[in-house]
## 1
Amino acid sequence: MYTLGSHSQDASGDAQVRALIAQGQILLAQGQTEAAKAQFDAAADALYREYQHYLFVLCLSYLYDPEQAEEMCHEVLSTAYLAMPTFRQESSVKTWLSGICHKKIHRAHRDWSRRKLLLKVQQGVIQAEVHAHGSPNAVQELLEMLREYGVYTLSQRDRTLFIKRYIEGYTLAELTTRWTSETAVRKRLAKIIQHLQRYRKDAWQ
Amino acid sequence: MHGNEERHEELAEIVDADERVHGRHFINEIRARVRAVQAPAPFRVRGMARIRTLPPPSPGSLARWREALKAWQPRPVVWAPVLASGLVLSLVCNGWLGYRTLSLQRQLAEPFLALERESTARELLTHLDLRDHAPFFNSHLFQSSIKTETSLGALAAAHPAFEERSMALGFAATSEFYVVGALYAEALAFLRSGNFDVAVKRLVSIEKELRRMYVPSSLANYVSNMRHVLESGKYRPVVLRDGLALFQPLCEEYARSQGTEQLTLFRVGAWLVHMRLTAAAGDTALLRQGNRARYFLHEMQNLHAPQEVLEALGQLSHLVAKPQIADGDVQEVLQLVKKIQTILG
């Protein structure tokens, strides 16, 4: 089951995945491609075991469609698998996967079909589709909540900040950048929450 | 500064409290729902099946390049002097090319900058006559440089270009451009003196000559229009002079299209009138046209001009090439020019 937690904290499977990738890199440098492939396959399996729920929720938060979220997860993990020889281990595995995922999702948002899907979400059509597909209740409830609070009405920057903080579990310190202080992040998050609560109040009362 | 930091801390506390207190319910709710979400059951199986279809991971080309760059250690002892000498060489080449271009531009612009000042026109003519292989011809500029107490119109009337019938029929048959050049120089001289009636007559002659030569109608129409403008008397003499001066480049361009010999004849016609006016005015300084005289002698030899003309031009070039031209020489120049005009006209 997916658990919220800091990206900098060492998760249970992080060390295992790192070790497998490092061994694969060493074998690849020695020219033992078959053995290296076996290590990388084992690392991919560990990635699936440890991070499948995390990635699925993350993709679902952005894409609002379970099928597309699953497809996106597979794309992200395939990319990570192919990039394992160049993984420099300067960040946690979770941050590495998150980076790949965000890049792919932002690229996918430029695609017209995804935009049409988001438009349908805004129009409330997606709720009926979720019921029709008979998705698990937890997925349905999460999507309903996102829609109920109008997360899709946020700008792309605010939506990314919201998802990173409350769905991916980044800490405030991790969300600060060279150009954004922690105070600014806090202030922005408070405004986002106020906006979502106001939206829910106006839409459902 | 200190006050700002306190304010920021206070604001951060308020915001932090806002996130925790006001959004507490929302945050707890969404985190609970996120924890409840799981990937579909065959998720990992499907993913691993897909991964097995992929090619084995290998360092990409970018990584290979990165490794190669890391491994490459240039020898600073060898490369530094090479790069430094290349830079210095580039600077020297660029500086030399820039200086050469600028000096060439200045050299080319020098005579034309002098055109802006009427007082320097004489120096300019002398300068161009001394240094140019192909002499510079501008009738308007030349006539404005002649120093004379009598008006140019009176001098032109006293020394007309055409007094007698042509003596060299074979050559004269092809010398229409000579006639046009001489008539143009006279028209300009009369116009400069305010003798508009005589200038109009010269323009009529030019127009007739041009129509007879079947030149493009635009050239003849230009002369015709200038004649109408002169007759109307609406414009100041300066404007009229400038307008008529434009005929020279137009006619020279057409003459050049017909052959270099036609261009030479046009210039000879105008130049002889100028020489005669200058000699009549007694301007010995401007009469020193040695280079031009030699140039025309050479060109007329190529045109197979009559022997008398060539002999007269030879004597003329000898006279005007003298450093000091005496009064006797001036009279001789007048007679020689008159002789040449009589033969060619």
Note: Chain A touches chain B through 52 residues (CB under 8 Å).
## 2
Amino acid sequence: MAIRQSAAGGARRGGLIAMLQAVAAFVLLGALIFVGALPLLCLFLPAILALAVEREPGRPMTRTLLLFGTAGAWDPLSVVWQAGSPRGVEWMAMLDARAVVWAWLAQAAGWLLAEGIGLGLVLLADRETARIEAASRAEIAALTAEWNLGEVADRLP
Amino acid sequence: MASPEDGFVNGVYELLPGEPPACGGGQISCAVRDHRNGHRELIGVLAARDAPVRSVALGTLSGQAIENMILPIAHGVGRLPDGRSGMFVIQPRAVGQPVLDAAGRTEPWGERALIEHLIRPAALALDRLSHLGVTHRAIRGNNVFRPRAGSRITLGGAWAGPPGALQPSVFEPPYSAMCHPSGRGEGGSADDVYALGVLMLALAIGAVPLADLPPDEAIHRKLERGSYAALAGALRLPTSIADLARGMLAEDPDHRPPPVLLADPLAARSRRVAARPPPRAHTGLDIGGHTVWDARSLAYAAFRAPEEGMRLLRGPDIDMWLRRALGDPLLAARVDDAVRSAGSSHQAENGTADAGRLMHCIAALDPLAPCCWQGVALFPDGLGAMCAAADPQAGRSGLREKLTQLVQGDGLAVWAAAKGSRVDNALIHLDWRQSRVLLNIPGWAGGFPRLRYAQNPLLACQSALVGAGCVVRLHELLPALDANAQAAGARLVDAEIAAFISARMKGRLDAEFAVLAEEEAHEVDPPGVRGLAQLRVLARLAQSDPALHWSNIARAALPQAEAAVARWHAGSERAQRLERLRHAAQEGNLLAMLAALDDPASLHEDASGVDAAKGRIALLETTLSRIGSHRAMRRAAGRQTAQEIAAACGTILLVGVAVARTMF
């Protein structure tokens, strides 16, 4: 009985959270539309998704995507900046398909660069580690054979 | 130089077994030719393996000359063509024939002939001999020679065996005759005088008296009646001869005339010692199948039947007999003290306390008696020869165990104390303690074999590993081992050889023998320990002549020696030393073989090297384990670095775009 009550309580809490998240999402969407931030959302959607997904401290991937995305969306952002008053018309002007593509491509390039460099560094580290490991094992084998230390060789990892 | 295998002794004296047989006084002998001058009037007398030659006498008499006595010229190992080998004593061939034939008979000699041709020359020779501190102990019918009728006799050689060992019991004083043939000891010139007196009687009557009696019965009769009465009681002898014989056959050695006095028979006749005849009981006492009437006969009967003797001594019969029948309460008190003596702790441990008490009782009953121990009688200076004789009989009579128990306990000291001033108490104590030390040395370097070889400097090594060869001196051991190495196998040193070497080298290799004994006892062989110890012993023997090589020994010792290479850890060092060892073995160079293995400095370096290697391996193992455990961390660090680089690139790109758009 206690288990069933606990399971029912958990389900009710889950539904409440989902409902609160949906309300928060609508409130945020309304606010964005109100301030004209929807175009920004479109331009930086990959970075925003990365922000939601990434769990690493400091959000380094999000940071990279934002930097690359800002560089890719420089032109529409500069238009808004130069307009002086952020009205909805100027904001919507940013939703040019070409500008969005450039912004997304830039963010994709940033992602690729970060992942590529990471992969390269890991490969390099693994290769160096393997070299050190092989050299150590060879030296142990040589010492064992030279000094007749069979019992030492038996307990090698 | 010709070797013993070629039939030579000391490379000079050629044994000629094909020549007419020489008279060696009952011992195996053969004709000898001196190769330096072709002199043929020599013989070689072969000593039995278990009866070593008299080393002290041979050393003292070397280069001496005594008229009317055959002295040794040389001694050394030789081999007869039939394979018999051993220690030969080279001495001049006796001229003439023995004074008694093989049956112990001859034409009776007259009074003048006995004095002029027998007593006087023999006494002069014995006097000269006693001045050199040596006794003859071999005056008997077949060892005294006369070139022709009417000439003076010559005393034969007496050097190729323990003193008195070949003497018929009738020619020995009863106390010497009751001893084991090898245990009669050097004795004194008085014993030679006694034997001369018996020979004089035999020549006077033309036959050996009491020859038809068993030795045991003859000794009983001598003790009961006195030697003179037993030997010449019913004979009609010239007065001068009877007077001489009475003095020469006195029971107490101190009562016999010394040889110098015998040289003047008239003076010897006039010397009357007021020896009191032993008191005789008015009733007899039955013991061991005999009825005894006096104390010394009782002592002898108790010696011959030790169990019954001890039983009677424990009871009241003997005490009452001594007090009432013999009338000697002092003697009864001394015997009672001996019966009640506690004995040594060692005797109590091995169950020989009764034997010790009986020996004490016999010594109390008869102060002239030898040391009587468990049915074996000996004089302390005969212990060495007894040890030599004991080993072959170990399985039959247990003589070896009896002698071991005698030396381990304090039997000899008790006997010497009971003898009082008749013996050199301090000397016997010193010899006994030294013997006991040797007996108590653990391992192969001590025990009975060590005692046997230490007591007999010219006793041949009795190890089976030397084969048929006769090894008396240390330098003869390696040739014998080399000749027999193929049959011996890998084990070239056994307990007998170890005891032999220890005795000859005064214990300088005892540490190696302790190792060998330990390995033998536990039947384990840590890498090369046995092989190295064996090689050390063999190489030490080879040091006496480094130029000689011993191929067979080296080949036989190689497998065990190779195991010693494993003491080095370094593979290259092992290979190098193994190569050196095999090369030295091929040459038969035992010293080089040992040099390849016995290198403490190199072993120390090797130990340091192996410690360093272990340290280095431990460090490498730590590195390997770190590599395994830090793999995920390194990957995370790589990704983080990549993010920073990417961020830097993004920043540069952003600044570049901003600058470009602003300026152009």
Note: DSSP finds 29 helices and 13 strands in chain B.
